[in-house]
Write a structure and sequence with these properties.
387 residues; elongated; Trna Endonuclease, Chain: A, domain 1
Length: 387
C-alpha cells in the first residue's frame, strides 16, 4: 500500500514538474512579446490541467496542490494560484472550442484562427522542455492557439470570458479592446455599459451627410452613451450635465472612444455681429475632424438640428484647418423618437447624428450583421503585422 502511494506521489510530482517546465519555457522565450508568452503559457498550462480534469485523473484538490507546489518550490514564478489555474483552464476550453473557431472563420479571415507563433515543437530551439508521455499532449493534442487571442491581454480575456456568454460578443470585445487599447478597468466599463449593443446597433440616427462623408462612421459612433458615472438625478439641467461631463472627462472620452480629444467647453463662434457657444468641442484623431457636441435635457426636436448645422458651418468656415476634414456634430439627448430622427436625418447633408444617453436593446439577427461589418472594418483599418 505504501509502495503504491509512493508511486502515486512520484507520478504527481513528475506531472507538477512538467507544468513548471511549460511555464519556464514560455518565460524564457525572449524572441516573442511578453503578452504573447503570457497567453501561450496560459494556453498550454490550461490545456494540460483541462485534460487531467476531463480524464478525471485530477480533481480540485490536486489543482490546489499544484498551485502550492509551484509557490513552495518555485517562489520566483508568480500568478499560478488555484483561481488563476482554473481561469487558464477556462481560457483554453472556451477558445479551443470548435464553436469559437467557427465564429472566427465566419467573421474574420483564416489567418486569425491559428497562429504560427503558437506552434510548439516545430523547430529544435522551440521544442518543449518536457518529454514524458504524459506531457506529449501539449504538442499533439492541445493544438495551436488562435492568432486572434494575441490582440489583447490575458487579463482582458479572462474579463471577457467571465462576463460575456455569447461567442459573437466575446469576439467583438477582443477586437474592440485591441482597437481602443483598453486596460482591464476600461474594458469592464465598456462591458457594463453594453458597448457591444450600442456600437453595433442599426444606425438610423446618422445623417445622409455623415454617411457619405465618413462611410465608416457607423462603426465609430454609438447611438447610446452611458453617463452613469455622473449620478445625475432624474430631473437635471443641461448645465449640470455639461459640468458633470467636464469634471469626468476621462470617463466620458472612454465612452465616446479614445480617438476623441477634448478641446473646449462653450466654444465661442463669432458670426457677423453675433456670438454663439458650442457646448463641447472635440477633435477626432482617426477622422481628423472637429466634433461639436450639443447637450439637451429634453427629447430630441428637429429644430435642434438646425442649430447644430449652423455651428458646423461656422466651424468649417472659421476654425477648421485646410488639412482637416468637415466638422461633425452630435446632439446628445435623453430620448429621441426613432421616426422623428429618421425623418430629420434623411435630408440632412451635414455630418450630424443624434445620440441618447440611455440603454437600447437590439435584435440578435441584426447584431450578427453589424458584427460582420465591424469585423470587416477591423480587417481593413487595423491589419495585424506579419510575423
Amino acid at each position: 500500500m505504501s509502495i503504491n502511494k509512493d508511486l502515486a506521489n512520484a507520478t504527481q510530482e513528475q506531472e507538477f514538474t512538467e507544468v513548471v517546465n511549460i511555464i519556464v519555457q514560455h518565460k524564457s522565450k525572449a524572441s516573442r512579446t511578453i503578452n504573447e508568452q503570457s497567453l501561450l503559457c496560459a494556453w498550454y498550462v490550461g490545456g494540460y490541467v483541462s485534460k487531467k480534469l476531463k480524464r478525471e485523473e485530477w480533481g480540485s484538490k490536486v489543482v490546489s496542490q499544484l498551485s502550492e507546489y509551484i509557490r513552495s518550490n518555485h517562489p520566483d514564478i508568480k500568478g499560478f494560484s488555484k483561481r488563476n489555474l482554473y481561469n487558464m483552464v477556462m481560457f483554453y476550453d472556451e477558445y479551443s472550442s470548435e464553436t469559437f473557431a467557427a465564429t472566427i472563420r465566419k467573421y474574420m479571415t483564416d489567418k486569425f484562427v491559428q497562429s504560427e507563433t503558437a506552434q510548439i515543437g516545430l523547430e529544435q530551439e522551440n521544442a518543449i522542455i518536457v518529454q514524458s508521455e504524459t506531457a506529449q499532449f501539449v504538442q499533439s493534442q492541445t493544438g495551436q492557439m488562435p492568432n486572434i487571442l494575441t490582440l489583447t491581454t490575458l487579463t482582458n480575456h479572462i474579463e471577457i470570458l467571465c462576463r460575456c456568454k455569447r461567442v459573437e460578443e466575446r469576439l467583438f470585445y477582443i477586437l474592440y479592446a485591441h482597437k481602443e487599447h483598453l486596460f482591464v478597468r476600461e474594458l469592464q466599463h465598456c462591458i457594463s455599459n453594453q458597448t457591444y449593443s450600442a456600437l453595433l446597433s442599426d444606425k438610423t440616427n446618422l445623417s445622409k451627410g455623415l454617411l457619405e462623408t465618413y462611410p465608416n462612421s457607423p462603426m465609430m459612433f454609438k447611438d447610446t452613451y452611458f453617463v452613469d458615472f455622473l449620478n445625475l438625478p432624474k430631473r437635471h439641467s443641461e448645465s449640470k450635465l455639461k459640468h458633470g461631463l467636464i469634471e469626468h472627462m476621462k470617463q466620458f472620452i472612454l465612452e465616446l472612444g479614445k480617438d476623441f480629444i477634448f478641446m473646449d467647453q462653450e466654444y465661442r463662434l463669432n458670426v457677423g455681429a453675433s456670438s454663439f457657444k458650442a457646448d463641447l468641442l472635440f477633435f477626432h484623431r482617426g477622422l481628423q475632424a472637429l466634433v461639436a457636441v450639443e447637450l439637451k435635457k429634453t427629447k430630441f426636436h428637429p429644430r435642434d438640428l438646425g442649430q447644430l448645422e449652423f455651428y458646423l458651418e461656422a466651424l468649417d468656415r472659421d476654425v477648421k484647418r485646410s488639412n482637416e476634414n468637415p466638422s461633425i456634430g452630435i446632439i446628445l439627448c435623453p430620448d429621441a423618437d426613432k421616426v422623428v430622427v429618421e425623418y430629420a436625418m434623411s435630408r440632412s447633408m451635414s455630418p450630424t447624428m443624434i445620440a441618447e444617453y440611455k440603454r437600447i436593446l437590439i435584435p440578435q439577427e441584426q447584431m450578427q450583421q453589424q458584427l460582420r461589418e465591424f469585423c470587416q472594418f477591423f480587417l481593413t483599418e487595423d491589419k495585424p503585422k506579419k510575423k
